[in-house]
Amino acid sequence: MKITKLLTMLIALISIFLISCGGTNYDIFAQCLTEQGATFYGAYWCSHCEELKSEFGDSMQYVNYVECSLPNRAGQTEICTREEIIGYPTWKKVDGTEIPSPPAGSSWMQQLSFHVGCPLP
């Protein structure tokens, strides 16, 4: 009986620890997106871009990201003008086609996985 209670408490503590350690690790997913030529165009002042960056977490270092805003929101960078980026966040495939924003009830991660072919963790 004591062993069962101890085991139950141990499992509960491990579960709490694992849950509190953070979200999903997207390293392999982010690397796959980059290997497949997907590019994320965003702006430092874009709240949706910041949410997406936060969702990637440390894995954002593997994402091909292009900052489109000039300092003080004084315009758009040349590359983003050339790529005809008109809203943020924008994702494009290697062939230049834009990945559509996710439909209601879906996430950017699901949308990227579907359109680029990289499996989610």
Question: What characteristics describe this protein?
Answer:
alpha+beta, globular, 5 helices, 4-stranded mixed β-sheet, 121 residues, 43% helix, Glutaredoxin
Write the layout of secondary structure elements.
Blueprint: H1 2-20, H2 27-35, E1 39-42, H3 47-56, E2 65-67, H4 78-82, E3 90-92, E4 98-99, H5 108-116
Parallel strand pairs: 1-2
Antiparallel strand pairs: 1-3, 3-4
What is the fold named in CATH at topology level? Glutaredoxin
Could you say which structural class the secondary elements and strand pairing correspond to? alpha+beta
Secondary-structure arrangement, i.e. CATH architecture: 3-Layer(aba) Sandwich
Question: What is the average of the pLDDT values?
Answer: 87
Uncertain parts: 6-21
SSE string: HHEHEHEEH
CATH top level label? Alpha Beta
Provide the β-strand percentage band.
5-15%
How many angstroms does the end-to-end distance come to? Answer: 38 Å
Helix content class: 40-55%
Spatial strand sequence of the major β-sheet: 2-1-3-4
- Give the overall shape, derived from the CA principal axes: globular
